[in-house]
Amino acid sequence: MPNFTGFAPLLAVRWTNKYAETPLTLCTIHSHKVSHAQIFQLAQPTRIQRDHRFIVCNSCIQKHNPESLSDLSVNYRCRWPTITRPSGVLTLRVIDNKNDEERPVESIKRKPQAAPLQRTAPVWLDRLFKLSEHRTSIRTELLAGLTTFVTMAYIIFVNPNIMADAGIDHGAAFVATCIGAALGCLLMGLYANWPVGLAPGMGLNAFFTYTVVGEMGYSWEIALGAVFISGVLFMIMSLSRIREWLLNSIPMSLRFAMGAGVGLFLGLIGLKTAGIVVDSPATLLTMGSFAEPSALLAAVCFLMIAVLSHRNVFGAILLSMLVVTGIGWAFGLVEYNGLVSMPPSLAPTWLAMDIAGALNVAMVSVIVAFLFVNMFDTAGTLMGVAHRANLVNEDGKIENLSRALKADSSSSVVGAFVGCPPVTSYVESAAGVAAGGRTGLTAVTVGVLFLIAMFFAPLAGMIPAYATAGALIYVAMLMMSGLANIDWKDHTDTTPAIVTVVMMPLTFSIANGIALGFLTYATLKLLTGQRDKVSISLYVLCVIFIAKFAFL
Predict the structure, then answer these.
(1) What range does the domain containing 364 cover?
(2) 440 in helix, strand or coil?
(3) Tens digits of per-residue pLDDT, 180-222?
(4) Is 3 exposed, middle or buried (0-12, 13-18, 19+ CB in 10 A)?
(5) Separation of alpha carbons 145 and 444, rounded Å
(6) Within a domain: 311
(7) Could you tell me if 395 and 276 lie in one domain?
(8) How many other CB atoms are there within 10 angstroms of residue 204's CB atom?
(9) Number of domains into which the chain is organized
């Protein structure tokens, strides 16, 4: 066995072969699945045990504790022309986390040996999802789909509550959420063959209800029209090079700031809904009373989610919401209405969007906000999942990325038909990828489970606002993690980012936060002699935003 003593916490373990063009890397992110055994035959494994503490793999990895070595997962970067194990000397190296230096630990000589893949899936299913090519199985994909669904199933309880505040029928909003998510997942799975789940976007649903409808005074039908238009624009961009041009023209600092600002906006809404933060004539905002059951139970829900997530408990958010709902029912705060029934009618939201009403100059900033947040959030999520799912080829290009973006943009258009805010890719899909999901069969599984969820409408109606508030606050914290990627040494980058993040919740508008952040960025770059860093598209957007503030 290799001896890891004396090493700092390891960043990666790498097997290299002198006849291979690229190394086979084992990243310290998630634990192994048995379906990866083909890859581990390079190292003669006798057992791969999935555990949140250790992995046993003969000849290379010894039992370890979390303090010295993180859980490992396979990142299969080496693609052989034939399914044959290479010959030569396999060298085990460790990468020291302190100085990022590789040190050889052990070498193993291997002789050529055929290792053909055994096809266990039906031929038509294997051809449709390319299961053999991605070295996965039906069982693994179904389990990964279930994992992704459980991690994002909270949306079927949270989104209807938010949409109901806009005046939409709760039952119709519940069915629309399930159908919109299911159609998005099916599009992603069948068209793009990606293991990504989609559903109405958190943050955008709050912007829809509390800003467009609540603050700006538009009807929810007009707001749906704006969602439809932004989806069509996103689809047009996905079919052309405009998408790439626009993505590259927006500075990275503002991209990360938009996601973090939406998170802070979402967190404020969660705190307000729970009663943890209340309005004050003297100070604008102040702390509420934890003597109120709603504030106390929302805090309990948030802390429970945080603890269970840290301990990698399966479905931490969904489980915490159900537990807090049960506590509320025990104290008479929740009325039991059953668990299963036929789905409510979709008639109140079906084709209810008012496109003509959304074709208003005052709605330009709203449409831009829907478009930008959805586009950048989608791009970030898809690229992150692609690397974890090994969808990056030898040239560094992401397989079917264009198809995935088209599926995502089409989902927003389809979602508007049934009554959903923008439908977008969920970062929770990474949980399914960690469970072994590699193909669109994972996404199709998620879509089918969303359709089944429509029959649990009574349960969705029982989930109280304080339970969803706890989930909102936790998701908000996760979304703010993007701030860590901003270059804090360049004040002409950090200042616009801070303006974007802070002004979204303070103006209670994602659109205003984006507009003020973009204007601040362009102004600072121009006045500090860095005009070459301001793109033409950014100038155009700034002119639109100035016109909005000046005349509307």
Answers:
(1) 128-533
(2) helix
(3) 999 999 999 999 888 889 999 887 888 899 889 988 889 999 9
(4) exposed
(5) 8
(6) yes
(7) yes
(8) 25
(9) 2
At position 108, the amino acid (one-letter code) is: I
The parts of the chain modelled with pLDDT lower than 50 are 1-103, 105-119
Q: 208 with 267, same domain? A: yes
110 plus 139 within the same structural domain:
no
Same structural domain for residues 312 and 416?
A: yes
Residue 543 resides in a domain: no
Cβ contact 82:34 at 8 Å: no
CB 437, CB 144: distance < 8 Å: yes
Distance CA 14, CA 33 (A): 18
pLDDT of residue 388: 67
pLDDT for 120: 54
CA dist 225 → 205, 229, 353, 363 (Å): 14, 6, 5, 10
Q: What is the 3-state secondary structure (H, E, C) of 209-235?
A: HHHHHHHCCCCHHHHHHHHHHHHHHHH
Task: List, as one string, the DSSP characters of 447-461.
Answer: HHHHHHHGGGHHHHH
The predicted structure's pLDDT at residue 395: 61
| Residue 527, pLDDT score | 92
Kind and range of the H or E run holding 75: strand 73-75
Kindly calculate the radius of gyration of the chain based on its CA atoms and give it in whole angstroms: 25
Contact 143, 436 (CB under 8 A): yes
Phi-psi sector, 396: left (phi>0), alpha (psi -120 to 50), beta: left
Question: Which of residues 114, 142, 164 is at a domain's end?
Answer: 114
Among the candidates 90, 114, 138, a domain finishes at 114
Q: Are residue 57 and residue 206 in the same domain, yes or no?
A: no
Please state the length of the chain.
Answer: 552
Predicted local confidence at residue 384, as pLDDT: 65
Regarding whether 433 and 333 lie in a shared domain, the answer is yes
Separation between Cα atoms, residue 456 and residue 449, nearest integer Å = 11
For the chain, the maximum distance between any two Cα atoms, rounded to a whole number of angstroms, is 78
33 domain-assigned = yes
Tens of pLDDT, residues 223-278 = 999 999 999 998 888 887 777 677 667 788 887 888 888 888 888 888 988 999 99
Q: Measure the CA–CA gap between 105 and 125, rounded to whole angstroms.
A: 42
Report whether 228 contacts 353 (CB < 8 A).
Answer: yes
What is the helix (H) or strand (E) element at residue 89, kind and residue range?
strand 88-96
Whether 270 and 302 map to the same domain: the answer is yes
Angle at 540 between CA 535 and CA 546, to 5 degrees: 125
Is there a single domain that holds both residue 362 and residue 465? yes
In a domain, 546, yes or no: no
- Alpha helices (H) along 132-285: 138-152, 155-164, 170-187, 204-206, 220-238, 242-249, 252-274
d(CA 177, CA 415) in angstroms, rounded, equals: 8
Cα separation of 76 and 230, whole Å?
A: 37
**What is the per-residue pLDDT for 393?**
67
